[in-house]
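Aim 2 progress. For DUF2316 family protein, the working sequence is reproduced below.
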Amino acid sequence: MTLNPQQIKNTQNELQQNFELSGLTKEQVATDLHINLTKLNHLFTLTQSSLNDPWILRNYLIEKVEAQGKKPVSFTALVGDWHQYWFLDSGLIDARKMSAGDD
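Predicted C-alpha cells for this construct:
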C-alpha cells in the first residue's frame, strides 16, 4: 500500500497524537516493541521499509491509549482489518514481530 503525501502527513500526525495520549516515553515504546529508538523514529516518520511495522505501532498505541480509558485518535489511512490486506503479514502484526534492522 502506497500512501500519498497527504496520507503520510496525516498518519504521522495520528501516530504522534496517539503516542502523546498514551503518556509513554519513546524509550518505553521501543522497549515494549523490542526495537531501538532509531527504528521507532523511522516508524513515526514512516521512513522504514516494512509495511507491517506501522500497523504494529498503530495497534500498540491504540491498546495503550484505550487501557487508560481514553479514546484514541482515529487513523485515516491505517484503517480496517489488517487481516484483509493481501500485502500485509497479519501473523507478524498479531505477534508484534517487527522487521529486523533499523529500518
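The CA atoms of residues 44 and 75 lie 14 Å apart. This observation will guide construct design in the next reporting period.
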